Amino acid sequence: MLAISVLHLKKYFKVYRRGAGFLPAITSLFSRKNETVAAVDDISFEIKQGELVGFIGPNGAGKTTTLKCLSGLLWPSGGKIDVLGYKPFDKKSDFLKKISLVMGHKNQLWWDLPAVETFRLNKEIYEISEEKYKQNLDELTKLLDVSEIITIPVRQLSLGQRMRMELIASLIHQPRVLFLDEPTIGLDVIMQKKMRDFIAEYNSRHNSTILLTSHDMADVKELCRRVIIIDHGKLIYDGDLANLVEKYADTKIITVDIAKRVDMKEFTRFGKIKSAADGKVIISVPKKNTTSVATTILKKYQIEDLNIEDPEIEDIIRLVFDKNKR
Amino acid sequence: MKKYFMVFKNSFAEYFAYRLNFFLWRIRVVAVILISFSLWQAIFRTNKVIFGYHESEIITYIIFISVLSGIVLATRTDRVALEINMGTLSNFLILPMRYFLFNLSRDAADKIINTVCSFFEIFLFILIIHPPIILQSNLFLIVLFFTASIVASLLYFEINMLLSFIAFWSKETWAPRFIFFILVNFLAGLYFPLDIIPGGIYKVLELLPFTYLIFFPLKIYLGHIDQTFLIKGFMIGIFWSILLWLFMGYIWRKGLKLYTAEGK
């Protein structure tokens, strides 16, 4: 069953431009130059119920704008959006009860009150029964490991704690579709891991549809089988993460542990050396030469270990964006 | 409706996080009244009746502005402009809740706290300064006074929301709000009863919504009224509150299409 369908979505913003300094500031009082920027420029995709999709792209690519259109915050300049059979901008109560949007740096928690007060308020807003509320709250606080701190005023919590409270507030009504915008931004490594485990667990437990944007490729790598890549408001890839590697990676990475000391420069003839130190050399080799290079190395040198891998996903994404620029 | 009650409850609880702020705000209200009070006392030293008002009537008018500043003028709708500009409005738009009712509930907490405080202040005022104040004993007038105050609150809410909605079109909402309120305070009768203004101008003011914010309810409290004044006043006040409610909804829908959810 389809949860989200987006057809030729466009969102244009009008922006004002003004030079730096005093004089341009004064002249801007009388005449201002404005131009239209296409934040999202004709993108289409579909997402099935229960899918967990990574939505990636550089800063300003249009990721967040798309999420805001999907959750009904923004009026689309063109195109059609259907989420669970609703037009998001209508903000029908039934629609809003089935979705949730979590943004990394936004907060809906009441700053001066303990988080549990926001949860209680959301219980009423979403019209959840007492029993269901207790069950959901219990599940979420356990999964996120925060039972102890829900009664502390929000302003006294650390960023990581607050982020988890935000998630609880956004999930207390058990949404069927969840939009996560940079859920791990600003968190330390341990918290990032916790957050990722939670998202994966939540997705499989409730079969909820999750669309997640992130700068951190580790999030995407660990959580999403499918990715949608956009840049300059345009969709440039939609498919399996594995296929992305297949499609765009024209190199392989060979890591060699050498038993005997040799001149590392010798390896330049096989490909581009990424690093070389302490008897370990990492080379990037054109895909088609991988087998022959590996064979030659194994024959010629005394090797302790040899590894052939695909390039890092970050590198591939960078390649995709570079290609798109040209 | 329970959700709006919870908003009210949370707003109430939130208030006590900043007790000093609140205390200083009340001092400001009392100070403004004290200034008006001493000014009018000086004027009445040489005259018994001015513009058809006795000293006790004017003093009651000035002091009861404190109550009305709680019931009518206490509001948090100035936050709305900030929420639009900062993009935090998104946090509310994403919830299955009616935004106007949400704001009315948030305001209700503000109004109750301020009104209760104002009664306490008036009590202290009477105890310490013994001003010649009129304590209305006609129950009918008191009921009408509170009814007129509720219409006034609604009007004030609508005016404030509309001013905040400027934020959909412009980042600069502070200046128009500031200028507008200097004018509104004057036109609402915050400094003096409006009917001391020459007849022609007063006739025009009677048709504007601002008259019904402060002057109309206080005039009822003083009992300076006849049937025509009452009927006409309520009709114009209710007419404006319906008209502004519809206009507010219209501007809100227009604004939402332009909303950019910025700030991130």
Give an overview of the whole structure.
The complex is a heterodimer of chains A (326) and B (264). Chain A is α/β, with parallel strands linked by helices and 326 residues long. Chain A has two domains: 244 residues, P-loop containing nucleotide triphosphate hydrolases (Rossmann fold), CATH 3.40.50; 60 residues, Alpha-Beta Plaits, CATH 3.30.70. Chain A has a six-stranded mixed β-sheet, with helices on both faces. Chain A has a four-stranded antiparallel β-sheet with strand order 11-12-10-13, with helices on one face. In chain A, strands 2-1-4 form a three-stranded antiparallel β-sheet. In chain A, strand 6, helix 7 and strand 7 form a beta-alpha-beta unit. In chain A, helix 4 runs parallel beside helix 6. The longest helix of chain A has 18 residues. The model of chain A has no long low-confidence stretch (mean pLDDT 87). With 264 residues, chain B is mainly α. Chain B is built from eleven helices and two strands, in the order H-H-E-E-H-H-H-H-H-H-H-H-H. In chain B, strands 1-2 form a two-stranded antiparallel ribbon. The model of chain B has no long low-confidence stretch (mean pLDDT 89). The chains are: A alpha/beta (326), B mainly alpha (264). The interface between A and B is medium-sized, with 36 and 27 residues.
